[in-house]
Design brief:
Blueprint lengths: L1 E10 L4 E11 L5 E5 L6 H9 L6 E10 L2 E2 L5 H7 L4 E4 L3 H4 L6 H13 L3 H14 L5 H5 L8 H13 L5 E5 L7 H18 L2 E6 L2 H7 L2 E6 L2 E7 H6 L4 H8 L49 E4 L2 E3 L5
Parallel strand pairs: 3-8, 3-9, 6-7, 7-8
Antiparallel strand pairs: 1-2, 1-4, 4-5, 9-10, 10-12, 11-12
Helix pairs in contact: 4-5, 5-7, 7-8
């Protein structure tokens, strides 16, 4: 997938508010790319823009999302529905709000299988059972008869993973899929996703604010702030040689279990809401290194080392 100059706006009373502002990135074959940043940075809006699932007040007014040679933004609803759930799938943050509470798990699992793969009911149920087994359910036929409220959070998220993987997509978008889970279940879900990704040669866009998850899952990392990409590099470089002050701040505010456990250094302030960005660097008001030139003009995202891109005037 190639995302080029993607800009997403929300319709306001007096003006449009850009929540994703001209971002570019690429996801290669069999690659896991992590999209990280604080809440309100535009991570989820990026994924919803790609999937064509924006709320009614949201629209993509600029850019391209090229997937397998086609620009998804040019597809109509019928064409997009053939891509979504088949070649391109998504797991959401809270499975309880993603699963229909009045339909059985089996009904929801087989619906996409029958629609995209053109299988009969019995074949669809067999395929659903296969994927329920692959995500760790020893009795898939029993799980198919259950409703979402009768399953734990970890079980519901595994059902969502089976639903997303059942049609064997080429790209899976996971929007903070382990945030609502306790650490033990989170580790199990991450191990499962890593295993399925390796077995299927599938690419993945993994959205999270947890840098520990990034270290486990990703090949490359994209750091977002206030609707823009501020740093992009491979995962090893992010942890050993981060350059943007925001990335450094995220790492310094993350608890460490090994080595000398010094005091955490929080990033002062909060992410500015859309429409209230300064004319220069959007991180300048929270940056300890900010200089007058940082507020004078918006810095460009530029390659400072091979495959290491940074948006900062001081670097």
């Amino acid at each position: 997938m190639d995302v080029k100059q993607l800009r997403t706006v929300l319709k306001g009373k007096n003006r449009d508010l850009a929540v994703v502002d001209g971002i570019d990135f690429r996801i290669g074959k069999n690659e896991v790319v992590a999209l990280v940043g604080e809440s309100g940075c535009g991570k989820s809006m990026t994924s919803l823009s790609i999937m064509g699932l924006l709320p009614r007040i949201g629209t993509v007014d600029q850019g391209e999302v090229r997937f397998q040679g086609r620009n998804l933004l040019e597809l109509n609803k019928k064409e997009m529905s053939k891509v979504r759930g088949h070649h391109l799938a998504m797991i959401f943050q809270e499975p309880m709000t993603s699963l229909n509470p009045v339909l059985t798990i089996g009904r929801q699992l087989t619906e996409g299988i029958r629609r995209h793969l053109k299988l009969g009911q019995k074949e669809a149920e067999d395929r659903a059972d296969l994927w329920l087994k692959r995500v760790g359910f020893p009795e898939p036929a029993r799980i198919r008869k259950e409703y979402a409220h009768r399953l734990s959070g970890g079980m519901r998220q595994r059902v969502m993973l089976a639903m997303a993987m059942a049609c064997e997509p080429r790209l899976l978008i996971a929007d903070e899929p382990t945030t609502a889970l306790d650490v033990t279940i989170q580790a199990q879900v991450l191990d499962l996703m890593r295993k399925l990704q390796a077995e299927s040669d599938m690419s993945m866009l993994f959205i999270t604010h947890d840098l520990g998850v990034v270290a486990e899952m990703a090949n490359r990392v994209i750091v977002m702030y206030a609707g823009q990409i501020v740093e992009q590099c491979d995962v090893r470089t992010l942890f050993t040689a981060p350059l943007h002050p925001y990335t450094v701040g995220l790492l310094q505010s993350t608890p460490k279990l090994r080595g000398s456990a010094g005091p955490l250094v929080p990033i002062p302030g909060t992410v500015p809401p859309a429409g209230r960005y300064s004319s220069g660097c959007r991180f300048a008001d929270r940056c300890r290194m900010a200089a007058p030139e940082c507020r004078a003009a918006m810095p460009e995202l530029r390659e400072v080392e091979r495959n290491h891109f940074v948006r900062c005037t001081l670097i």
